[in-house]
Amino acid sequence: MNIAPLILFASLLLPLHSSAEEHQNSNPNGGDTIVFTTLGRSRYEFDIFALSTTHPPSISGEIRITDGESVNFNGYFPSPSPALISLLPDAALIQPGDSSPLHLIYVTERNGTSSIYYDLLHGGDPDSKSKRRSMLEAQSRVQIQLLTNADNRSGNTVNSFKDKPSLSGEFLVYVSTHENSGEPRTSWTAVYSTELRTGLTRRLTPSGIADFSPALSPSGNLTAVASYGERGWAGEVEELSTDIYVFSTRDGTQRVKVVEHGGWPCWVDESTLYFHRRSDDGWISVFRAIIPESGALSTESVNIQRVTPPGVHAFTPATSPNNHDFIAVATRRPGSDYRHVELFDLRRSEFTELTRLVAPGSHHLNPFLSPDGSRVGYHSCRGQANGKRSPLLFLENIQTTTSDLSLFRIDGSFPSFSPAGDRIAYVRMPGVYVVKPDGSGRREVYDGMAFSTAWDPVRPGRVYTSSGPTFATERTEVDIISIDVDAIDKSSSVRRLTTNGKNNAFPWPSPDGKLIVFRSGRSGHKNLYLMDAEKGETGGLWKLTEGAWTDTMCSWSPDGEWIAFSSDRESPGSGSYELFLIHPNGTGLRKLIQSGTGGRTNHPIFSPDSKSIVFTSDYAGISAEPISNPHHYQPYGDIFTVKLDGSNLRRLTHNSYEDGTPAWAPRFIDPNDVVLRRKNDSSCAFEDCHWLNKNPTTLKGQKISC
């Protein structure tokens, strides 16, 4: 009898708060909608796969473990404890002596939020010879949500980013961002321990400290993390300058720094750690730290040894308990555009390639080993391994903490809403597009390179944008254009409003449609100007700000009172940007918000009632090691809102990506995913960190960023 695979879902501790059915309301009392961009995220189709470490790698030998639908990553093979098994809906799913079930704990993004799941999968052992009928008739997959986005004490929904889970007997250890650090430009990322049976949660990271990439020792008694300690994140966007700390998993005490400069730790036994860092020769390599079994523990008493040789970037190491024969690593080899998983023989100091022999044209990230070392897991694009594809979402609903706010990730950049809220303009670089909020009627209205969009409030169908390259100097040719998106003749739909090409960008019209505020480099510095909205600069040009700094990313409040913009005027050229407000007549200049010293607050946009601003910022620091993710120009940045008096600062997004270019809709949009189209091609595509493309011999004297 052919039994269709059945997926069982169970939730631990608390009910789910993110099901689509709970959000199918039209919100008759009104509400707000914010849309933002995450670079590349809509193209992620991550599943977790596994290969044998004892057999030659092959396509047929690769197992897809996760569901083929969600975005699944950063897995962990647990040794199933009684507490974990007790969560199963049927204890008979685990039979004595049955080696075929595969246990996996992992991070998943689904239903608009990230969470940690436990999957039990039958038939996943390529070496299993017992293909019993009872196993074939059992459910092929059981999924159990180990954590919910609900506060244990209040029961209220809270947003957070979850990462790097592992299991220590009764306790799940993981990273979460649900607690505000209380300081600007300070990471909210901390390590927590949750008892599986009761849901009781303990913070293991000291207050005021951020920890990343936790790893448990084989006994589970010790946890190692990458951490900045009290000095905090300094703004790195490539390999982080974290140190390695060790503490008691039980309560976070006995915390000691054991390695200066290291990340992504993993244990092979109670006194041996592996980690990665950039070597003096420029190659990112794996190192070994041998911790003394007695005596005082400090960075001076720990013996550090380089493990992987120069000539290849090797990082995110993985170990299995008491396995001193090999480790698994991710590599970027010279001449290759792809990240692959390899084994490294610790006795022979030799690499053995794995994933390149299976899928040479795909990236494979963050390997992890089974407890017996017989299997290596990793996440990668799922391709068409399951015979189906996930839909490409135009608007992806992101979970919020209140029903009066809907939040969406858009498949595009620089979105803006028409005055009635019935159309959205956005860019694809190149190209400017217009589409209805339900995803229908999508049209390209300009095929050139452009960035930023803004709708005219009084002239129907007119969109303003910046035509030219992004992130360019003051003298680069960039001009403001207007596009009649409803013009029948596309060739006559574009009008150029600035003519000198001195990096004129970020246009935003006044609410009466008479003027446009924009930034220009015509003086040799990027400052703000006003010009006639109909005739452009030939109809009148007025300087709004002036100085040897950069004022940029401006927007006009709907009530006409304020212009918001981002500026480095307090530290010109430093890369640090803060949000300022100014009246259109040049008076009332004041700083609204600053992200610590050296931070960034960008892309301010007003709410429809002109009382708040949405913006992107590194105010919450960084949430994960950048090398553990695909390419992001700035591997930080979340969406925030704030009142015009600086009060009620609110973080809306929690992830380790780069969120930016938000837009505030003039009307509420129901919090449901909007499908752009069904994926019928290999649309899972992303770039690896750009700074891994360079060999150390070419890095000297260059500043590159991910």
UniProtKB/TrEMBL annotation:
InterPro entries: 6-blade_b-propeller_TolB-like, WD40. Residues 1-20 form the signal peptide. It holds the Pfam family PD40. This is Dipeptidylpeptidase IV N-terminal domain-containing protein. Keywords: Signal.
